[in-house]
Amino acid sequence: MISLGKTYPLTVIKVVDFGYYLDAKNLGEILLPRKHAKKIFDIGDEITVFLYLDSKDRPIATMQKPKAEIGQFAYLTVTETTDFGAFVDWGLDKDVLVPVKEQKRPMLVGESYLVYLYQDKYDNRVVASAKIDKFLDQTPAEYKTNQAVDLVIANTTDLGFKAIVDHSHWGVLYRGDVFQRLSFGQYKKGFIKQVRPDGKIDLTLQGGQETRDKYAKIIENYLTNNNGFSPVNDKSDPELIYQTFGMSKAAFKRTIGGLYKAGVIKIEKQGITLLKDD
Predict the structure, then answer these.
(1) Where do transmembrane segments lie in this chain (predicted)?
(2) What's the topology of domain 7-62?
């Protein structure tokens, strides 16, 4: 079923001077205004569009890409405040309302806030809420170790960074595992480090075979370009490891361990050495 606040590939069924009518199945024909079309289309063409209500509460399509869709979290900037709420910029011509009752504290113009987008059950409008906890899944997560996930960086804690996992659960990136600048609202690819018995999720920004292969290549290239030797080894300071190879100490130790087992390098007290092919 097609619904507002989402992106779909829809087929052009009618071309008019002011735009294109698309077949939105259960929602009927929906107009894609010509100003929101990136090129000229013909009947039968399939177009990927986002559906929402315009200023006159009519369903409408756009090829503009919103910063978030219904069911997602995003860090959005306030453009206007009123007695009934604040409007935030989500990348479309029409801003999204955060009602007063959905604000944790009064929002200020120019400030950015993490919000959740949902459809108001009374008028079908896309609205947002800054009370994000009530929209997160409280059931135990069923992730697997090293599973790739999408993260939204939410805030900092004494442990590190809290992040929303796949727009559904809270997770934590521990400070000792983060060797790059992170900002609130930033989207990142991450991996499941573990799901604890109490249901809490530990995350990492490094994992998966693709990442392991990339790190192995970085180390091999470094050694090749430095006469086959690096004074950095698994006992080195984490900051030195990051400055040299751009990875955490844990990722570095895993990578050189794999290279050692594969007979690619030798690990010594003085550092690591690239072994020459026989």
Answers:
(1) none
(2) OB fold (Dihydrolipoamide Acetyltransferase, E2P) (2.40.50)
